[in-house]
Write a structure and sequence with these properties.
By secondary structure, this protein is α/β, with parallel strands linked by helices. It has helices spanning about 10-25, 55-60, 80-85, 100-105, 105-120, 145-155, 190-195, 200-215, 230-250, 250-265, 270-280, 285-305, and strands at about 30, 40-45, 70, 90-95, 125, 160-170, 175-180, 185. Strands 1, 2, 3, 4, 5, 6, 7 and 8 form an eight-stranded mixed β-sheet that branches. α10 runs antiparallel to α11 (about 270-280). It starts with 8 loop residues before the first helix and ends with a helix.
């Protein structure tokens, strides 16, 4: 079985289309603070998690090369799905709720993650353990720091956990802005040395609080756009209605399935992911769907401003 860090020409070729598809789902994708990522050691990326599989797609946009990911182990239950996920460089990580037998398998996975880092392939883990379509963060779990400590002990290299903020303008609408921000990394070796007088459990609790604080500082920072000139915008809305109708008809195979699929899902945080999949499948409809969603946002914002 191919290691998650090994070169795969098909994966490399597919990434161009995947990254471009990701960008088509948003009005703009900006990357900030990339210079904060250290180059003198190995890096574990630690973003906030609020939009299901769309979050990993955006992490990929920030890197030209491969990025490996950890995901909850229960989604690997079906062999065919597990095979696809592994090709995507995603490995299963069991949580305590999965039982001790499953958690014991983590050690083998952790060894492969350390090997991945040793080959200079960044590893990304969502430290909250779950996603939530809200600004803010749930408590950080210590698993990411256990992996970092294992890498520190085995590799003899500097190990950094790099906070990353994924900041969406809209959680459920398409064609909004998104900003990807990298903060100052946590040097794991230095942190353990500075807190060597504390018990291990206290060190991990401190690391979890530190990561949460740094991640929170990177989200909720999108500047608010002021919408004035209501009469002029209302005139523009009337004039654009024929174009909107044309784009709505032309992109029917994207927006209608999106509505139907989401109506059957309790977790609406999958909104961006479903949109991405439909964009991926129907690129020929992008010229219709992108202006359709941008005009829809224009109308919504106008209505909200007039209330």
């Amino acid at each position: 079985m191919r290691k998650i860090w090994e070169f795969d020409p098909v994966y490399k070729f597919a990434r161009h289309y995947v990254d471009f598809t990701t960008r088509t789902c948003f009005r703009s994708v900006t990357i900030e603070g990339k210079e904060n990522l250290p180059t003198d050691g190995v890096v574990i990326l630690a973003p906030n998690h609020c939009a299901a599989m769309m979050d990993p797609m955006l992490v990929l946009v920030t890197e030209k090369g491969p990025v490996a990911f950890g995901a909850r182990s229960d989604i690997f239950a079906q062999p065919a799905v597990a095979k696809i996920l592994r090709w995507l460089r995603i490995v299963p990580i069991a949580r305590e709720r999965n039982g001790l037998h499953e958690v014991a398998k983590n050690f083998e996975v952790f060894d492969e993650i350390v090997e991945c880092l040793d080959h200079q392939v960044p590893f990304c883990l969502y430290s909250e353990g779950t996603h939530r379509a809200e600004r803010g963060m749930l408590p950080v779990k210590k698993g990411i720091f256990r992996i970092a400590r294992m890498a520190l002990d085995k590799l003899g290299k500097k190990v950094y956990v790099a906070p990353m903020g994924i900041d969406y303008e809209y959680f459920f609408r398409g064609q909004g802005r998104v900003a990807l921000r990298f903060g100052q990394p946590i040097d794991i070796g230095a942190y353990f040395q500075e807190h060597s007088d504390e018990v291990e459990a206290a060190i991990y609790r401190g690391l979890c609080r530190e990561l949460q604080t740094r991640d929170l500082a990177l989200i909720g920072c999108l500047d608010e756009r002021r919408h004035d000139r209501k009469l002029l915008r209302a005139l523009g809305a009337m004039i654009s209605l024929p174009l909107f109708a044309l784009c709505a008809a032309g992109s029917l195979l994207i927006w209608l399935p999106h509505l139907i699929i989401l109506s059957q899902m309790e977790d609406k945080a999958w909104s961006h992911t479903v949109r991405f999949v439909l964009h991926f499948l129907f690129p020929v409809l992008w010229p219709f769907h992108i202006p359709f969603e941008r005009l829809l946002n224009f109308y919504r914002n106008l209505i909200e401003d007039c209330k």
